[in-house]
Amino acid sequence: MTYTKRIDGRKLDELRPMEAKAGVIPNADGSAYFKIGKTTAYVAVYGPRELFPRFKQDPTKGLLRCHYGMMPFSGSGERIRPGTSRRAQEISMVMEKSLNPVLDLSAFPNAVVDVFIALPQTDAGTRCAAISAAAIALADAGIPMTDMVSSVAVGQVDGTVLADLDYSEEAYDAIVSDVPVAITHNKKEVTLLQMDGEISKEDLIKALELAKGATEKVYELQRKALTEKFADK
After folding, report:
1. N or C end of the chain, less CB within 10 A?
2. How many angstroms separate the CA atoms of 59 and 64, rounded?
3. pLDDT digits over 108-133, tens only?
4. Alpha-carbon distance 179 to 193, whole Å?
């Protein structure tokens, strides 16, 4: 085991500095800004509104639709190609599946809630930042929610289990795993669990335990952002 001291000096369970704010886009029904390290996500929510085309409508409930996108010069590596990519489509779907368990759209039949995510700057953990920001924006829009979803990535670098890997750690010349996780605050249900790389069963269990505490830190920031927004009303 050689990776015992993190490149940026953080403790093994320490997250990068975080910021969050609700209500940052005036013309949206709900919006949020979430930053962790150098990864920044802006989210705008529109709806509920009538869903087109009509054949996609559900007469029993509304539909959540996410639109994820990274800006062309947002990445740490090569320029991001503009437009929809397979990766953006996959993350959009992952976001929908992560957020749907806490949404109650039964009062909005045949409607859609559109969530638009833009990342002007990235340095790992993009889908987690997007999910955490989207949860704030949905609450800001007044969409009925049974719980709050908080997301962060955990994993391991050369046998050391860490919270919130950055780009330099993901690219470290050793065996690396990146495990994005999303957890609800009250019920502690996992709504997202993915993995890229290699990790042992024992280290995965350690990483998931680490994720519980890490997502609580994200939740506290989400709650603060919403409290500050509505305290001004």
Report:
1. C
2. 14
3. 999 999 999 999 999 999 999 999 99
4. 7
For the domain that residue 43 is a member of, what is the CATH number? 3.30.230.70
203 in a domain, yes or no?
A: yes
In tens, the pLDDT along 181-225 reads 999 999 999 999 999 999 999 999 999 999 999 999 999 999 999
Residue 99 has pLDDT above 80, yes or no: yes
What backbone phi and psi angles, to 5 degrees, belong to 10? -70, 160
Residue-level pLDDT at 80: 61
Q: What global pTM score does this model have?
A: 0.94
The whole-number pLDDT of residue 3 equals 85
Is 27 part of a structural domain of the chain? yes
Tokens in use for 2?
């050689």
Residue 109 counted as domain residue: yes
Residue 8 lies in a domain: no
Side-chain half-sphere CA neighbours of 212 within 13 A: 9
Query: In this structure, which amino acid lies at residue 17?
Result: P
Look at residue 4 in the predicted model and tell me its pLDDT. 85
Range of the structural domain that residue 86 is part of: 18-231
Whole-number Cα distances in Å, 210 to 31, 125, 136, 152, 185: 29, 16, 23, 10, 15
Rounded to an integer, what distance in angstroms lies between the CA atom of residue 232 and that of residue 41?
A: 23
